[in-house]
Amino acid sequence: MKALVLAGGSGTRLRPLTYVMPKQLVPVAGEPLLFHTMRNLHQIGVRDVAVVVGDWHAEIADALGDGRRFGLRITYLRQDRPRGLAHCVLLARPFLGADDFVMCLGDNFLPDGIGDLAADFAQRRPAAQIAVRAVDDPRAFGVAETDGSGVVRRLVEKPAEPAGNLAVLGVYFFTEAIHEAVERIRPGARGELEITDAVQLLVTAGATVRASEYAGYWADVGRIEDVLRCNRHALDQVKPELLGEVDDASETVGAVALAPGARLVRSRVEGPAIIGPGAAIVDSKVGPNVVIGSECTIQATRLGDCVVLDGGRMTGLISDPQPLPPEGERRDD
Ligand code: G1P
């Protein structure tokens, strides 16, 4: 099985963060979102991955390289502008050939992996398999209607009046049947070739399309609140490990992961927290729910519930945690 990872989107909802980096490289638990995706792919046995990139192609290729560090071989495919998820499949046809493939959206965070979904697909091998999750308000997602046994009856992209509550997640398993469907669809309401329409075409043609309910943690990282929420979730798994230096006037409380080369000077860090390699925390109070990137300098500062990007410098800043809006809510671009 091959993989297609879509990382061409611009991430307008994540501005101002996405003025400096693509949303697929936003750090979650101290690592770019795409690193988590690559690990998920390696775990299910994928070795060949094509990553569709747009304006941020250089930054993404810099971060992932040739894939060796993940045990993968990565090919980059350049999309001139966002033309839709189905357009990415068209673009990747020469790479995919007639192989089965898994398509992952680069802005979806699935820290529990995609092993169950891959097993489901391998066992039943329908023409296509989508992953779904019941959400309170599915209007900002693709919405699937099933017959109750997991067979998809209808798929609609962002319906104003959804017929059910099953939102489509960003992990799709396809056989080569999808290629013909992708060639036949026309741009949808937002002017893009929607993968939802291609999958619906398979349903209409009588092919078996199944929906697998995803049981693990899932977030579509579209807004800053999603980034914070994902980090908070990932931080719940952090194991206390002090590999850096803690001076006598500093203390750590709870699950604090201090990377090698990180220093705490007259500071207090309350876990869960990750302090990246080479970071210096001086005369500060940090945590809980904080991820400090590598080589950051945090001085005379109080921080809670936040992410500091690699190389960030802060002096004399007080930032207290803000409450997050309800889970599962999504505004559109
Ligand atoms: C895309 C799909 C949508 C799916 C969502 C999941 O939407 O078109 O069907 O529910 O990803 O993240 P987009 O992020 O392009 O708005």
Report on the structure:
The chain has 333 residues and is α/β, with parallel strands linked by helices. The chain has 2 domains: 2-233, Spore Coat Polysaccharide Biosynthesis Protein SpsA, Chain A; 239-319, 3 Solenoid (UDP N-Acetylglucosamine Acyltransferase, domain 1), CATH 2.160.10.10. The protein is 21% helix and 31% strand. The protein has helices at residues 33-43, 57-64, 85-96, 115-124, 177-184, 195-204, 224-235, and strands spanning 2-7, 27-28, 31-32, 48-53, 73-78, 101-105, 108-109, 128-134, 142-146, 152-157, 166-174, 209-213, 219-220, 241-242, 245-246, 251-253, 256-258, 263-265, 268-270, 273-275, 280-282, 285-286, 290-292, 297-299, 302-303, 306-308, 313-315, 318-319. Strands 1, 4, 5, 6, 8, 9, 10, 11 and 12 form a 9-stranded mixed sheet that branches. It has a 5-stranded parallel sheet with strand order 14-17-20-23-26, covered by helices on one side. α3 packs across α5 and α5 (177-184) crosses α6. The protein is elongated. The site of 1-O-phosphono-alpha-D-glucopyranose (G1P) has 13 residues, from β11. Keywords: Transferase. GO terms for molecular function: transferase activity. InterPro entries: G1P_thy_trans_l (IPR005908), NTP_transferase_dom (IPR005835), Nucleotide-diphossugar_trans (IPR029044). This is Glucose-1-phosphate thymidylyltransferase.
What is the general shape?
elongated
Which ligands appear in the coordinates? Answer: 1-O-phosphono-alpha-D-glucopyranose
**What's the total number of strands?**
28
The CATH architecture of the largest domain can be named as Alpha-Beta Complex
CATH H-level superfamily title of the largest domain? Spore Coat Polysaccharide Biosynthesis Protein SpsA, Chain A
Distance between the termini: 32 Å
The helix count comes to 7
Count structural domains: 2
GO molecular function: transferase activity
InterPro entries: G1P_thy_trans_l, NTP_transferase_dom, Nucleotide-diphossugar_trans
Keywords: Transferase
Protein name: Glucose-1-phosphate thymidylyltransferase
